[in-house]
Amino acid sequence: MAIERHGTTQRYSDICAYGNTIYLVETPQTLDSNVATQTHEVLAGIEKLLQQAGSDKSRLLMATIYLRDIEDSIAVNAVWDRWIPRGTAPVRVCVEARMAHHDFLVEVAIVAAR
Questions:
Q1: What are 20-43's pLDDT values in tens digits?
Q2: pLDDT at position 80
Q3: Are 92 and 81 in contact (CB under 8 A)?
Q4: How far apart are CA 51 and CA 37, in angstroms?
Q5: CA 49, 56, 114: angle at the middle one, nearest 5?
């Protein structure tokens, strides 16, 4: 079985898939905004990538949420809870991390089923 890669650069791919499992990471686009706005952007980007890979947000298996400041988890959870379809919550972890880009407040890694 071949590994599928989409949006591949020298450093990363937007999506990797193996069989019926999809892997992706999304980062914010508006770097001068608050964590709620960045979270909306990231989740919208995840939806778009999932659709491109033949899946949707109801098929998430695991989410890893990286926050520059763990105190932002309250705002992130408020956005997340409105976004995720009832009864389809994946396994999830939320951790504080030093971000690769200083203006990233949130970054999300996803594993999903097709």
A1: 999 999 999 999 999 999 999 999
A2: 98
A3: no
A4: 21
A5: 90
Residue 105 and residue 69 in contact, taking contact as beta carbons nearer than 8 Å: yes
Helical residues (DSSP H) of 1-114, grouped into ranges: 35-52, 73-83
- Separation between Cα atoms, residue 26 and residue 80, nearest integer Å: 14
Spatial CB neighbours of 21, under 8 Å, sequence gap ≥ 6: 61, 111, 112, 113, 114
Distance of CA 80 to the CA centre of its chain: 11
Give residue 22's region: left, alpha or beta (phi > 0; psi -120 to 50): beta
Alpha helices in 1-112 (DSSP H): 35-52, 73-83
β-sheet bridge partners, residue 89: none
pLDDT of residue 76: 98
* Under-50 pLDDT residues of the chain: none
Which own/partner contact pairs does 10-16 have at CB distance under 8 Å and 24+ positions apart? 14/49, 15/49, 15/52, 15/53
